[in-house]
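Q: Given only this backbone (118 positions), what sequence would you predict?
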């Protein structure tokens, strides 16, 4: 397995544990379609939350959230629409979140949760 793939999987595991730890319910992980992937689909009460996980091994090349560009946000919105359509879900509210994970060098990873990115 490539190092970046392993790091990405690590970040998604950390993000999943974090989400469950704050009381959100994970509905699906790594949903894919021809246009991309949603890392985590979760519920927080009546809100459906689609989560993009960004992971770095250090801050040497910037914070993980710096990779969330306007183009990436448009893609996230489109993938959210595709997921809702394909699963025939009519949620009262839908939110896009980003979870940034920085791998801990000698300890616990750092986790930052951005709610409702636009």
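A: Predicted residues:
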């Amino acid at each position: 397995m490539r190092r970046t793939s392993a790091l990405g999987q690590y970040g998604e595991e950390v993000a999943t544990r974090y989400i469950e730890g704050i009381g959100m319910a994970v509905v699906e992980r790594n949903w894919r379609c021809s246009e991309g992937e949603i890392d985590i689909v979760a519920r927080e009460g009546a809100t459906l939350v689609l989560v993009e996980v960004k992971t770095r091994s250090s801050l040497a090349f910037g914070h993980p959230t710096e990779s969330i560009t306007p183009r990436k946000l448009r893609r996230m919105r489109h993938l959210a629409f595709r997921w809702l359509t394909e699963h025939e879900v009519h949620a009262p509210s839908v939110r896009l979140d980003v979870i940034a994970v920085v791998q801990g060098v000698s300890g616990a990873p750092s986790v930052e949760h951005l709610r409702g990115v636009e």
